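Journal club prep, shared notes

We agreed each person brings one worked example of a sequence with its structure written out as tokens. Mine is DUF6788 domain-containing protein. I'm keeping it raw so we can talk through how to read the token line rather than staring at a rendered picture. Sequence first:
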Amino acid sequence: MVVRKMSRYEELKEKTYKLGELSPGSIQERWLTCGNPDCKCAKGEKHGPYYYFAYPDRESGKTKQVSISEDVVSNLKSRIRNYEKFREKLWELVEIEVEMRKG
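Then the structure, token by token:
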């Protein structure tokens, strides 16, 4: 049992290091109104989409966001997926390590 856990532990470590670039956060798509009463958006046809990257601020713990261009959305989505995979594998590593230390 310990050998199997150790093998899974090493496998997870290797996969974690191969994930590539990581970005914690999410992408938000927004459609906005400009406030001009003569604009098409005043009639319901909003401007957009505009993209924002929301991420946790290390110091405050609050969520911050920045506007991003459409051409970086695809790459950023990939980095966010990598980060989510990383977190899953990291927690599995922690669980295996705790089990190995127990017995």
